[in-house]
């Protein structure tokens, strides 16, 4: 997932799991030249809403092990990662990242939704769990939406 990769890069570069939000913005905008400062601030908001970082006063704390997130040579995130994704999209991305074909996952989720009569988001969480994919943090969002 390129959002997770973009978030991990500054933390990996500095060898830490905590940094000032301003330092994170500088790392993405000036050091790596991936985004403008305003776009980098938007990325912080999106990453926080998806549980990838947590705000602690003026610091950002990465909420996953950034050291195990590969940053491919020549990686350049697209601007699409600056937009918030729906709960369904987040679960589907987690399932695909776990190695399940996207088409297979969507078909399975749609079948579940019809069979058990729940929202698309709830069906996606049930499907992910049945495939052994950890989506607990995302599932909490689904519970809030119910």
- How much is the average pLDDT? 91
Query: Could you tell me the radius of gyration in angstroms?
Result: 16 Å
- Return the domain count: 2
Low-confidence stretches: none
SSE order, as H and E?
HEHHEEHHHH
Number of strands: 3
What would you call the structural class? mainly alpha
**What amount of the residues lies in strands?**
5-15%
Amount of helix = 55-70%
CATH class label of the largest domain: Mainly Alpha
First-residue to last-residue Cα separation: 27 Å
Note the main sheet: 3 strands, antiparallel
- What order do the strands of the largest sheet run in, or round the barrel if closed? 1-3-2
CATH architecture descriptor text of the largest domain = Orthogonal Bundle
* Number of alpha- plus pi-helical segments: 7
- What is the molecular shape? elongated
CATH topology of the largest domain: Arc Repressor Mutant, subunit A
How would you characterize the overall build of this protein?
The protein has 146 residues and is mainly alpha-helical. The chain has two domains: 2-82, Arc Repressor Mutant, subunit A (Orthogonal Bundle); 87-145, no CATH class. The protein has seven helices and three strands; from the N terminus they run αβααββαααα. The chain has helices at residues 2-14, 21-31, 37-49, 87-97, 102-116, 120-130, 136-145, and strands at residues 18-20, 53-56, 59-62. It has a three-stranded antiparallel β-sheet. Strand 2 (53-56) and strand 3 (59-62) form a beta hairpin. Helix 2 (21-31) packs across helix 3 (37-49), helix 4 packs parallel to helix 6 (120-130) and helix 5 (102-116) packs across helix 6. The longest helix is centred in the C-terminal third of the chain and has 15 residues, at 102-116. It is elongated. The two termini are 27 Å apart.
């Amino acid at each position: 997932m390129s959002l997770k990769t973009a978030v991990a890069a500054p933390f990996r570069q500095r060898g830490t799991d905590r940094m000032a939000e301003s330092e994170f913005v500088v790392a993405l905008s000036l050091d790596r030249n991936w985004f403008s400062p305003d776009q980098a601030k938007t990325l912080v908001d999106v990453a926080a809403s998806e549980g990838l970082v947590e705000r602690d006063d003026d610091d950002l704390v990465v909420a996953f092990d950034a050291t195990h997130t590969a940053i491919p040579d020549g990686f350049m995130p697209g601007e699409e990662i600056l937009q918030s994704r729906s709960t369904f999209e987040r679960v589907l991305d987690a399932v695909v990242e776990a190695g399940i074909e996207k088409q297979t996952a969507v078909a399975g989720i749609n079948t579940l939704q019809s069979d058990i009569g729940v929202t698309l988001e709830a069906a996606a969480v049930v499907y992910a769990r049945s495939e052994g994919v950890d989506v607990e943090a995302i599932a909490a969002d689904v519970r809030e939406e119910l």
